[in-house]
Amino acid sequence: IGLGGQLRDCRAAGQTPPSSLAMRHAWADRLVLRRVRALIGLGRARQLVCCAAPISPELVQWFEALGLQMVEAYGQAECSGVATLAPAGKGQAGTVGPALPGTAVRVAPEGQILVQGPHVFAGYLGPAGDDGLRVIDGWLHTGDRGELDAQGQLRVADRMQASIPLAGAGPV
């Protein structure tokens, strides 16, 4: 893992790894890292996408040290899945990337993430729940709180509400 981390850091800095590091890493990958990837069910994986919740930078670094690229994304079923995606190898820790082509993302004054595009659903059939998900003037009000940085990278903070009521059930 240490050699994988050194190789990752070298590449992240835009440097070519020294041949001695590349050779030691190749042996470590053949003898250990490949087996660890197989043991955790990621033997053939080359890239992982995290999009369910914010992930700790340390966990991203660990997977990358194993030889797996980790990218972060943001989206919901109401916007046909993914709305933002961090570029592979170029993502900024703690962000879920910029809006995908054809998608507009902005943050409302109260901090709610809004998404617009041809892939955003028109609204729920029947009465909407009280989970914050609404389409107003073509913008999906996601119910998530976040911020955009100067480069247009989205950072998701949390839900606007602590719980989401489900039909026929109490708070989750």
Q: Could you describe the 3D structure shown?
A:
- There is one protein chain.
- The protein is of the alpha+beta class and about 170 residues long.
- The chain has helices spanning about 1-10, 20-40, 55-65, and strands spanning about 45-50, 70-75, 80-85, 105, 110-115, 135, 140-150, 155-160.
- It contains 3 helices and 8 strands.
- The strands form 2 sheets. Strands 4, 5, 6, 7 and 8 form a 5-stranded antiparallel β-sheet that branches.
- The two termini are about 35 Å apart.
- The relative contact order is 0.12.
- The mean pLDDT is about 85.
Compact description:
The protein is α+β, with helices and mostly antiparallel strands and 172 residues long. The protein is 24% helix and 26% strand.
Low-confidence stretches: none
Q: Per the principal axes of the C-alpha atoms, what is the gross shape?
A: elongated
Over all CA atoms, what is the radius of gyration? 20 Å
The helix content is 10-25%
On the 0 to 100 scale, the average pLDDT is 84
Decide which structural class fits the backbone: alpha+beta
For the record, give the distance between the C-alpha atoms at the N and C termini, rounded to a whole number.
37 Å
H/E element sequence = HHEHEEEEEEE
> What percent of residues are in strands?
25-35%
Q: Main beta sheet, described?
A: 5 strands, antiparallel
Number of strand segments: 8
Number of helices: 3
Key attributes of the depicted protein:
single chain, 172 residues, alpha+beta, five-stranded antiparallel sheet, three-stranded mixed sheet, 24% helix
